[in-house]
Amino acid sequence: MTKSSSLKKTKQQSPACKTSRRRAQTKSADGDAASVERKERMKKILKALAKLYPQAECELDVATPLEVLVATVLSAQCTDKKVNQVTPALFEKYPNPQSYAKAKVSDVEKIIRTLGLFRAKAKSLVAAGKMLVEEFGAEVPDTLDELVKLPGVGRKTANCVLVNGFNKPGIMCDTHCCRLSLRLGLTESKDPVHVEFDLAKLMAPKDWGLFSHRIILHGRRVCHARKPECGRCSMNGFCPSASAGDDRAG
Ligand code: SF4
What we know:
The protein is mostly helical. Helices cover 65% and strands 0% of the residues.
């Protein structure tokens, strides 16, 4: 078969190709429209949250990147209030990475035993101290890629350290952030990493940290997991879950 006849043959198959290309174009146009709609909604959400919680900030009592790291590891499945009750004694006894590296896990456990998962958390803190000393010059690193190498540190904790310890951009995708992002139509995923990536596309990095603090507060105060108080929520005019109640919002 010559090159030109082969081309002709390809052209003869073109109606099917055209149809699938048209479908792909329609899909991509739908995707673009959805993304524009999400971005527009995100602008309204940022504005509403800024008005509701102008002073939102980290509720853990922490002053240094190491304290942020330790308190955030401790806060897994635990309230900030409970963490704040144990950290003064912990920070006093273990003021630097070297002291965690040399600590006995059982001694750390004694100080944090009122917290859930205290055994695993104590083990993580000592292991993290060792890694900080051996691989990071006894300094808490300030990049996400390095932070997630530390024992007990996932993306949420790493982002928390970036935002609260280094004043760098980060999206803290905890349970409240994930739930509200889904309800507000900013994502279709329940997976924290997917949600984080979806949110990152919808706002400038400079907004990531404050957005996280604010959406978490809104989740704690208004948009509760079981029964969101849509009636008194200032975003009920544009939230896709506002009138659907718990069934849809879950
Ligand atoms: S309108 Fe209801 S579901 Fe939507 S963010 Fe507000 S409280 Fe949550």
